[in-house]
Amino acid sequence: MQNNTNHTDPGDSFSTTFGFTKILSISSLVLILATGLVLSVVIANSARQTLLDKQEQFATLVAENLNHQIYRRFILPTLIGFGSIELSQEAQYDRLERTIESSTRGLNIRSLRIYDLEGAVSYSIDRKEVGNKEMADDKVQRSIKSLDKSFEIHSTISKWWGIFMLDVEDDSVVLRTVYPLRMEDDLVGPERKRGPLIGVLELRQDISGDYTTVLRFQRVIIAASLLSSLGLFLMLLAIIRKVDRANAERIKERNRLERELHQSEKLASMGRMVAGIAHEIRNPLGIIRSSAELLLKKTSSKEDLQARMLKAIYDESKRLSQTVNDFLDYARPRESKREPVDVGKLLEQALVFLEPECEKNKVEVKKDYHLEPGSLMVSGDKDLLYRAFYNILTNAMQAMEGPGTIYVHAEKNEGQLNIAFTDTGPGFDEDSLDKLTDPFFTTKDNGTGLGLTILKNIVESHGGALILANGPEGGAHVQIRLPLA
């Protein structure tokens, strides 16, 4: 008997299943490839936009720092020294140029111009441009009229063809920043208030290096998308890893930028740290002061050497206690007092107290100023100015490390009192001269980097200027300019 039962061919079932899997695989690969390409474009654009945002924020920081440095290190000293700003004078122009060079060193600045309120170039890295009135475009004019800042990217690289470029030449991508320069109303507070417009800053930064990183990132994403055809899971894993790395880089960049933007918080942290140990410092100071006071009361003669030394110990321990409080207020500078101060008397007090130390180290002090009472009068805080002179003299003795000479000169000049200290030590490091007053910058192994910063704050709080240089015959030269009372 014939068996007519129908059989299902396993090959047909396998073929059907394989075909479905093949179609699904191909469809998945095509979908993943398309999704990967779209995703690569999205991520690349996001990375490019992140780069531009970061560069704009960084350019803003650079412009704000330039505004601050130009105002502090050029405008104020020039107004004090010359009475007016005239860049046609070679000395003023050179001072501005040095200020800008020290503030932009290592920042890939290709060009920098400062326009006056009429739109003419008053300063430029290329001096041939000075006086040109045709270079101020609409962005500069808008900044003059409405105090707007603007950013503009100049690129010779196509967004798409740039992906296939293995190397990007310098100056291929340049960021142009237009920023209004303004006066600063608050010179000592943690937040600088902006005053009236004094000019417009235009600078061009080469960001080709950072842009190259973005292009490399784009190529990695596209390569990952092409390799997605090897499997669904590998492709998904590759995308997840790429996205994680991209996010990690963005978070890292954001944190770095936040650290730069909140640099001032370090000063507050410094103040909190010092506050923690202030109690331990005040206790021994109190014991020293009270002991000296007790011994001074028991001294029969108030004019002998012992009595004078006890009086000096008492006075200086009391002054050191005040110094601790001043150091605690470093991040929050207090306004100095305004009372008549005889600078000649202060210098004599500091030198008398340091006389034993000078004899011990064989240091000779040569004075060149009038000792008549009231001949060198300024308006200010007696304790702060004494501290400034004392610190300069002790720094000079420490720098000489043995026998030497300190020259102290003071004279009146055009409504100002110039006090100059010159020693015969090794002098300042020329490469670090512009950084010596920066907070926490020090060339000493055990220094805090705050001595010259505090000195500068004291001088500037009195409306004066601090000038650090090396003497013509070597040695450090520290000059303080204070307005006369």
UniProtKB/TrEMBL annotation:
Gene3D superfamilies named in the record: 1.10.287.130, Histidine kinase-like ATPase, C-terminal domain
Catalytic activity from the UniProt record: ATP + protein L-histidine = ADP + protein N-phospho-L-histidine
Domain of life assignment: Bacteria
EC class (word): transferase
EC number: 2.7.13.3
Segments forming domain Histidine kinase: 276-485
Keywords: ATP-binding, Coiled coil, Kinase, Membrane, Nucleotide-binding, Phosphoprotein, Transferase, Transmembrane, Transmembrane helix, Two-component regulatory system
Coiled coil regions, renumbered to chain: 240-267
Spans through the membrane: 23-44, 220-240
Gene Ontology molecular function, alphabetical: ATP binding; phosphorelay sensor kinase activity
Pfam families in the record: HATPase_c, HisKA
Record-given protein name: histidine kinase
Organism: Oceanidesulfovibrio marinus
Taxonomic lineage from the root: Bacteria, Pseudomonadati, Thermodesulfobacteriota, Desulfovibrionia, Desulfovibrionales
